[in-house]
Design a protein that fits this description.
heterodimer, A: Thrombin, subunit H, six-stranded antiparallel beta barrel, B: alpha+beta, Neuraminidase, 2 domains, five-stranded parallel β-sheet, four-stranded antiparallel β-sheet, 26 strands, rod-shaped
């Protein structure tokens, strides 16, 4: 299901980390999404170079544990981390591209 | 001030959230349950709603109800227990943000203000442009730094080359032919030309003439720039004290105070004059008559100029082409002689002497007089 407020589309995502990181799952909102990556806005700590996994739903499609790398992280004026994520799994990227094309076409 | 509806079943929690929202700059309207929340929505028209989620209140229901009544009002959910799955579920239902416990002013304020500015998710099938990288700014800053450093180094080098060129140059031709006296006024070299009856002010780095002052109706032969006045000597031995302005206005006159004198210098306390014809040095008190305190025979050949280097009296002996340093107590006693090889060939006749604080300068006219432009020399003298 796609969350929305007015004309805004909101894509929330659950953020998981590698088991070795010993970190709790957290969550955030995607400010932007493309087949190759996403811009994650979250109140939780994300560090540059960190590997993480996104779980989200786009339209009717469920995406589970998309492998990503935090290529850059900065903090906005509200104190939220804005993490530039690069997706690293080519199969997931192709699937994501297809779904995004469908969404943009509708 | 933005308004927020705060929905919490527990009165204490509601009070806490109202307080935190207020501290974060929001005007909070409390509501105990869904009916009060809907009433707040209708009557207060808040900018956003803040609801709690826990055993005593199901935020899912509230999010749905609020979305049904006011679909444009964003909802923020405050979880009583941290649960990422629950948070994402609530956001998928329509909550714009979910705040994890413990609720702090910083977290809550950030969530509320972030939600108000939320613009949703932008979809794209082309690669995203990441957050502004600091690399270009860093590169620009580094480039600017090196640019400025190189510019500064170039300026320094240019200045150094100018100084070196100046240091290497020890002689300058003057734009007039009959210099008769010279004196430094700060960094400027003042040279008196008896023929044009003028004082030329030269800027030392390039010896360019910055100013010309005239002595109309007088025939000056020597002068000395003091700290607050200019002392001038004319051909009949009259000494005048003048202002250090561009017109050299006369302040006082001492008729025939130094008859026969061809040179004078003010050492800061006394005025010294030299008579070339009879070979005599005089020391004057700077009173209203320029009283002569003493006279001494000149120990050289022909004095044509005097200078004071801060500690000793010096004279320029045109006959022997040398500088003489005099004992201040007994000026007839010479404590040092410095030959001037610049004048050895006899083509120039030294006529003026001055001290710039570190070196002596002499001015000369050609032999015969007026044949060639006057010339200035800067002398480097090794200590004996």
């Amino acid at each position: 299901m796609r969350s929305s407020r007015g004309s805004h589309r909101l894509v929330p995502a659950m953020v998981s980390f590698a088991e070795t990181a010993s970190r709790q799952d957290c969550w955030g909102m995607l400010d932007a999404l493309a087949p190759g990556g996403a811009m994650l806005s979250t109140r939780f700590k994300v560090e540059r170079g960190e590997r993480l996994f996104l779980t989200m739903r786009l339209g009717e499609e469920e995406f589970s544990r998309i492998a990503a790398l935090a290529a850059a992280v900065r903090t906005d004026r509200d104190g939220y981390r804005l993490a530039e994520l690069r997706f690293t799994d080519e199969v997931q990227k192709r699937r994501l591209a297809k779904v995004l094309l469908d969404l943009l076409a509708t | 001030m933005p308004t927020v509806g705060v929905v919490a079943g527990d009165a204490d929690i509601r009070g806490d959230l109202v307080l935190l929202a207020g501290e974060s700059g929001f005007l909070a309207h409390p509501a105990a349950g869904i009916s009060e929340a809907l009433e707040v929505l209708r009557e207060r028209r808040p900018s956003l709603m803040l609801v709690t989620d826990g055993p005593d209140q199901d935020a899912e229901l509230l999010v749905r109800e609020i979305a049904a009544v006011s679909p444009l009002v964003p909802v923020v959910v405050a979880l009583k227990r941290r649960d990422a799955h629950r948070a994402v579920t609530l956001m998928r239902l329509g909550a714009c943000e979910v705040v994890a416990p413990p609720w702090t002013k910083e977290d809550l304020g950030a969530a509320l203000s972030k939600t108000l500015r939320s613009r949703g998710t932008a979809f794209s099938v082309v690669p995203l442009r990441g957050p502004a990288s600091s690399a270009p700014i860093f590169f620009l800053a580094v480039s600017l730094f090196f640019g400025l450093a190189l510019g500064y180094a170039a300026l320094q080098r240019s200045a150094k080359l100018r100084v070196e060129a100046y240091e290497e140059k020890k002689t300058w031709d003057l734009p007039y032919k009959h210099p008769s006296a010279a004196s430094f006024n700060g960094p400027d070299l003042w040279v008196l030309d008896w023929y044009t009856q003028s004082v030329y002010v030269h800027a030392v780095p390039d010896m360019g003439v910055r100013q010309v002052s005239h002595f109309p109706g007088e025939l000056p032969v020597s002068f000395s720039v003091g700290p607050d006045a200019v002392w001038a000597l004319d051909s009949v031995g009259t000494i005048t004290r003048r202002m250090k302005d561009d017109k050299l206005r006369r302040l006082s006159e001492y008729p025939k105070a130094a008859p026969g004198a061809v040179a004078l210098v003010f050492d800061g306390l006394y005025l010294w004059t030299a008579d070339a014809k009879i070979g005599l040095l005089r020391k004057h008190l700077s009173d209203d008559k320029l009283t002569v305190l003493g006279t001494w025979p000149y120990p050289g050949g022909k004095p044509v100029a005097l200078a004071f280097d801060g500690t000793a009296l010096w004279s320029l002996d045109a006959k022997n082409r040398e500088l003489l340093r005099h004992n201040l107590e007994r000026p007839e006693e010479v404590t040092r002689r410095v030959a001037l090889p610049e004048y050895r060939d006899g083509l120039l006749r030294p006529v003026a002497l001055t001290w710039d604080g570190g070196r002596f300068w002499t001015a000369a006219e050609s032999v015969p007089a007026g044949k060639a432009p006057g010339r200035v020399f800067r002398h480097s003298m090794a200590e004996p």
